[in-house]
Amino acid sequence: MILSFLFFMILFIGGILLMGISFGLPAFQALAFCGGLLLVTLAMAFMLREGGSATRRSKNWSGNPTE
């Protein structure tokens, strides 16, 4: 759990930093911005796919109402 959170934070903050410095680059600004956006998107997707959260997402796919 701690390692997955650290992985998420490294991807998320790294993506934000990459998007931030992309405006100051002399070349490849769009590539750096898109790379940062991809890192942030992957970080959010990774965190949303993690199981064991308080929302009990794994039990909600059957169509039954939640408790």
**Major sheet: size, sense and barrel closure?**
none
Oligomer: single chain
Tell me the number of strands. 0
Category by helix and strand content: mainly alpha
Sketch the topology as an H/E string, one letter per element: HH
Estimate nothing, just give the exact number of structural domains: 1
List keywords for this structure.
single chain, 67 residues, mainly alpha, 2 helices, 0% strand
SSE map:
Blueprint: H1 2-21, H2 29-49
Task: Describe the protein's architecture and organization.
The chain has 67 residues and is mainly α. It has one domain. The chain has helices at residues 2-21, 29-49. Helix 1 (2-21) packs antiparallel against helix 2 (29-49). The chain is elongated.
In short:
The protein has one domain (2-48). It is 61% helix and 0% strand. The protein has 2 helices and no strands.
